[in-house]
Amino acid sequence: MIYHSFFSKGGRMKPIIGIIGRVDIDEDHYQMFCSYEKLRRAIQTVGGVPILLLPTQQVDYYHLSNHEIEELTEEEEQDLIQELVLCDGLIIPGGYRWFTNFDLFLAKEAVKRKIPVLGICAGMQVLAILETEGQIIEKIKGNDPHFSKEKYVHPVTIVPHTHLSKVLGTSTIKVNSRHRYVVHHVNEEVYQVNAYSIDGYIEGIERKDGQYVMGVQWHPESMVQFDSYARKILEDFIDETRKLKKV
User: Fold this and answer.
1) How far is the C-alpha of 72 from the C-alpha of 95, rounded, in Å?
2) Does the pLDDT at position 224 exceed 70?
């Protein structure tokens, strides 16, 4: 049986994009893991097939904080790897709560297996944490100019000669912004900062060795329908994931 929904108009298999699930609770107080709808639709818009990646621990993620969650067992790690190997690319999404041990494990394994990774907002912070010792995340002090539901919130300066600058072809873009925490430094042996906000915060990172591991602090998935630069970021990610397709 042929599943036509997995094929592009040109007949090629579309890349499978794993989206790390985010814990939430519904109106009846039942817990669930889900994906942001704009992210799901954005991936489909640029030619990917999104699937949800779920934790393998029997843990109450909604009510427990990170330090209360036990480390993954070897079996739980192997179960997560089984999910990951289904994917041609991994997206670490943002979140209004916190990222967890299974975010970090999936990100680490994806990098190890050279699966393209795109970290969005808190997802960029996950990527930075993977390669940096110590506390590198801090809350923005004072009135937060980086959290708003407006279409565009502030400009971002793109660092020349980075992969992001080649993709966008410009030195400045306007972005949305929904974060209260920032990365104040990265491991410069691993990462190149590729974008800054006007007030000097890190807005984007990429690996120096050429492997596609990209993080942005804003939300291109929410802008893909009306902003060409946001669309270019997601299309570039999908182009990288197509390189893993076997057929």
Assistant:
1) 21
2) yes
Sign of CA dihedral 81, 83, 86, 92: negative
- The pLDDT score that the predictor gives to residue 247 is 38
User: Which tokens in the block code for residue 93?
Assistant: 């999404």
Local confidence band at 190 (pLDDT 50, 70, 90 cut-offs): very high
- At 184 the pLDDT is 85
pLDDT value for 133: 73
pTM of the model: 0.90
Question: Which among 46, 44, 215, 187 is positioned nearest to 125, based on CA atoms?
Answer: 215
Instruction: Give pLDDT, residue 198.
Output: 87
Short-list 223, 207, 122, CA closest to 164 = 207
Question: In this predicted structure, what is the pLDDT of residue 61?
Answer: 86
- Give the 3-state secondary structure of the chain: CCCHHHECCCCCECCEEEEECEEEECCCCCEEEECCHHHHHHHHHCCCEEEEECCCCCCCCCCCCHHHCCCCCHHHHHHHHHHHCCCCEEEECCCCCCCCHHHHHHHHHHHHCCCCEEEECHHHHHHHHHCCCCCCEEECCCCCCCEECCCCCEEEEECCCCHHHHHHCCCEEEECEECCEEECCCCCCCEEEEEEECCCCEEEEEECCCCCEEEECCCHHHCCCCCHHHHHHHHHHHHHHHCCCCC
Output the pLDDT for position 237: 98
Among 219, 194, 193, residue whose Cα is nearest residue 119: 219
